[in-house]
Amino acid sequence: MTDDANPLLSPSALPYGLPDYAAIRPDHYLPAFAAAFTAHLDEIREITASDAEPTFENTMVPLERAGALLENVAHAFYTVSSADATAEIQAIDEELAPLMAAHQDAVSLDAALYTRIRSLHERRDELGLEGEDRYLVERHHREMTHAGAALDDAAKSRLTVLNQQLSTLTTTFEKNLLADTNDLAVLFHDPAELDGLAPGELSAASRAASERGLAGYLVALPLFTGHPYLASLTNRDTRRRIMDASRSRGSRGNANDNGAVLIEIVRLRAERAALLGHDSHAAYVTSDETARDPEAVSDLLHRLAAPAAANARREQAALQQIIDTTETEPFALEAHDWAFYTEKVRKAEFDIDTAALRPWFEAERVLRDGVFFAATRLYGITFVERTDLVAYHPGARVFEVFNADGSALGLYVLDLYTRDSKRGGAWMNPIVSQSRLRGTAPVVVNNLNVSQPADGQPTLLTLDEVTTLFHEFGHALHGLFATVTYPHFAGTNVFRDFVEFPSQVNEMWIMWREVLDNYARHVDSDEPLDAGIVQRLKATETFDQGHATSEYLAAAWLDQAWHRIGVEDAVADVAEFEAAALAAIGLNNPAVPTRYSSTYFAHVFAGGYSAGYYSYIWSEVLDADTVEWFRENGGLTRETGDRFRERLLGVGGSKDPLEAYRDFRGRDAEIEPLLKRRGLEA
Fold first, then answer.
1. Residue 131 CB-density burial (10 A; 0-12 exposed, 13-18 middle, 19+ buried)
2. DSSP readout, 388-448?
3. Are 441 and 434 in contact, with CB atoms under 8 Å apart?
4. Dist CA 319 CA 313 (whole Å)
5. Can you say whether the dihedral through the CA atoms of 399, 402, 403, 409 is positive or negative?
6. Is residue 480 part of a domain?
7. Known catalytic residues?
8. Residue 625 and residue 387: Cα distance in Å, rounded?
9. How many domains, in total, are found in the chain?
10. What does the angle CA 394 – CA 463 – CA 614 come to, to the nearest 5 degrees?
11. Domain endpoint, select from 486, 512, 539
12. Residue 4's pLDDT band (boundaries 50, 70, 90)?
């Protein structure tokens, strides 16, 4: 294949550099990566071949220009490999994983490049470097040192092998999980077994079955433990079947057993951490995050775990009482019963049936009159759908985004619906990153996994799905608003334990009355959600928080436990290790399972959150404190939005995140708003 015939190797002619997905075929990717690897290494060699004393202009500027082709190809491919991973794309991903790891090491461990950057770092005061320029030198020096650039040649050689092995294993973990999630989707033949589901949910299950050529109703599994349907399914055996399928993914005896894979991932990560001078992978990861060490993470998780577990036990007792007094043949509450009886308590105490609220959350209205509306009120931005632009899948929609003054900002792509080729969960990723140096504007994607009803029927979201859409759009805003010179700082390229902060803040607008009144209207009658229901919803903010906080903290602690293992430690049985870890922090209540069990914990064994899943609660300290600031300063106004955009979202990664927070808030964050939000003050 000639370069001219490969659309990935030529600048895209589409607006904002959107890849020409209509012209890209799977067989274009590997040749494009090969060419991009070569081009990037040539650009690095040109920098290091210079005999001139290192300067910012002859080292850092060309370094930031380098790799543009590789970034374009990688963003185009990894968008597809996560959202539309056909068998052909998965095969490419597996072949590519060690190649990408080897290339990243070739750059990050380059001794000559490190020598030049170290020289600049040592002379940064003498050179008068300030602002984004100074921080760029500091971050490159820190990141290369962290990656192992200061190691000797033998250690670098071993490190490269470890990185390639890990890249292959994490790809295998994700492939196994996707296959097992599809294989374990639960098929029902009698609609009576799904009593309690809304017509749209039943329609989605029927559509899912027919798309696989099956008769009946197929319930696909989300990434997390359990299923949203558990709150409304009246048949206890149906609930059990779904929960059992969810919790068995990747486990021993399955065709896609992830146990041995994750144990090897943990072992290799521990060896790599030791090679880099750290006691554990958790110590290695947190050393370059705002937490700084795993002890700080442990302190926070332990501080929250005991009151959360106690609250969960009180909630459990209340649910058991409902069972004992209402069921003809009472039984002990189990994990698959929790959501169902929680809804009964919610309805009895607050007169709220969350399943009955779905007609007020029609997806298109939530998007345009909720998510987009809040962003327009806060930041002045507007959205125009570009049906003329083709994304990577027919289900992905493209919107052009404009600033308040009418100037173009970037593109936003929304891929709402689940499919067998899409990995579970929800996420944001860039396709094109903004950079003044490269002259690029942002193109960002939001992916969700909402069940798609039959053609002609409206998509009615659960309140949790509404929350997910607002959350992921918060990430998208971060990617759209970050305005930096250097691509190294583009978009959400911030510390992992800070990245969830902007997305969590954006959730506050879901129940903001001005926003809610605009989008929460009945799909048939257009009636707004009753004010009494809204007040009762707000009154439930701490309701079931013992369960919600416990299941999250269990997963966060499980992540830490796996990654605090030393290189000499050995784990023989995944389930035993997991049980012991949860018992150690007091979060081993069988009725409240961890949000992700180890064998399907994609965040940490196939994603970028290894030893970093704590970041959600860590960031929530900042989030809860920021929500207080918005309430104190006028709420949904251009003044508050512009300050948040300018001082936090707009700086991307070009500033220390806690410094940026202090600049925005006027002080460090306080933990009390988080404790109050989650009902943990005591």
1. exposed
2. TS--SSTTEEEEEEE-TTS-EEEEEEEEEE--TTSPSS-EEEEEE--BTTTTB--EEEEEE
3. yes
4. 10
5. positive
6. yes
7. 472
8. 39
9. 4
10. 90
11. 539
12. low
How many residues are recorded in the chain?
682
- pLDDT digits 0-9 by tens, 564-582: 999 999 899 999 999 999 9
Q: Tell me if 649 sits within 8 A of 484, measured CB to CB.
A: no
Phi, psi of 220 (to 5 degrees): -75, 155
Residues 7 and 116 in one domain: yes
Nearest Cα to 413, choosing from 434, 392, 433? 392
Strands, E assignment, 5-147: none
- Residues 231 and 375 both lie in one domain: no
Q: Do 431 and 522 lie in a common domain?
A: yes
Asked if residue 348 belongs to a domain, the reply is no
Continuous segment of H or E residues that includes residue 219 = strand 217-219
Tokens matching residue 450: 């909402």
User: How are strands ordered across the β-sheet holding 382-385?
Assistant: 382-385, 396-402, 408-417, 443-450, 427-432
* Distance, CA of 126 to CA of 123 (rounded, Å): 5
Question: What is the Cα–Cα distance from 589 to 75, expressed in whole angstroms?
Answer: 41
Q: Do 69 and 36 touch, CB atoms closer than 8 A?
A: yes
Question: How far is CA 473 from each of CA 375, 407, 436, rounded to the nearest angstrom?
Answer: 9, 20, 23
Q: What single DSSP character describes residue 360?
A: G
Domain co-membership, 403 together with 526: yes
The pair of structure tokens assigned to 188 is 């029902």
**Residues 433 and 442 sit within 8 Å (Cβ to Cβ):** yes
Q: Per the structure block, which two tokens stand in for 676?
A: 């109050």
Last residue of a domain, one of 150, 169, 195: 150
Q: Are 614 and 560 in contact (CB under 8 A)?
A: yes
What residue numbers bound the domain in which 194 lies? 184-247
- Calculate ∠ Cα 38-41-45, nearest 5°: 135
Q: Is residue 347 part of a domain?
A: no
Predicted model pTM: 0.95
Whether residue 522 is found in the same domain as residue 551 = no
Using one digit for the tens of pLDDT, what is the confidence trace for 460-482? 999 999 999 999 999 999 999 99
In this structure, the answer to whether residues 79 and 195 fall within a common structural domain is: no
Other CB atoms within a 10 A radius of the CB of residue 84 amount to 21
Mean pLDDT of the chain: 97
Q: What is the pLDDT of residues 136-165, one digit of tens each?
A: 999 999 999 999 999 999 999 999 999 999
Measured between alpha carbons, how far is 400 from 412 in angstroms, rounded to an integer?
A: 6
Q: Where residue 293 sits, what CATH number does that domain have?
A: 1.10.1370.10
Question: Which is it for the CA torsion 132, 133, 138, 140, positive or negative?
Answer: positive
How far is residue 589's CA from residue 582's CA, in Å, rounded to a whole number?
A: 9
Cα–Cα dist 499/491, whole Å: 10
Same-domain pairing of 66 and 133: yes
46-89 confidence digits (pLDDT tens): 999 999 999 999 999 999 999 999 999 999 999 999 999 999 99
Residues 132 and 15 in one domain: yes
CA–CA dist 10, 69 (Å, integer): 9
Return the CATH number at 110.
1.10.1370.40
Residue at 33 is within a domain? yes
Which residues lie closer than 8 Å to 356 by C-beta, 6 or more apart? none
Question: Taking a C-beta distance cutoff of 8 angstroms, is the pair 491, 444 a contact?
Answer: yes
